[in-house]
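Per your request, structure below.
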């Protein structure tokens, strides 16, 4: 579930293959302003589709010349992103 949090957004619950497509569509509709931050601290479960989803949101933002950033990546998502060598794309400031 994507929840507006002031000027930014928070994702709660799960990002798995079961809901990734719905979250992709919802995020593409919501993440239209430049400079948005998406807080991932309330994610309870992720699978590899979460990495794909975050990367697709970032690609879409880049296509539209917008900045989109993610904060508070849970350890399981960081681990998957590290496994796929994309952590620096998802969270550049903390990947070094």
């Amino acid at each position: 579930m994507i929840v507006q949090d002031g000027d930014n957004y928070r994702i709660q619950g799960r990002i798995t293959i079961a809901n990734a497509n719905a979250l992709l569509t919802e995020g593409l509709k919501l993440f239209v302003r430049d400079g948005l931050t998406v807080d991932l601290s309330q994610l309870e479960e992720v699978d590899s589709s979460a990495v794909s989803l975050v990367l697709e949101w970032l690609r879409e933002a880049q296509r539209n010349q917008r900045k989109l950033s993610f904060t508070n990546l849970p350890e399981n998502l960081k681990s998957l992103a590290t496994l796929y060598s994309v952590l620096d794309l998802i969270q550049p400031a903390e990947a070094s």
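The chain has a mean pLDDT of 94.

Regards,
D.
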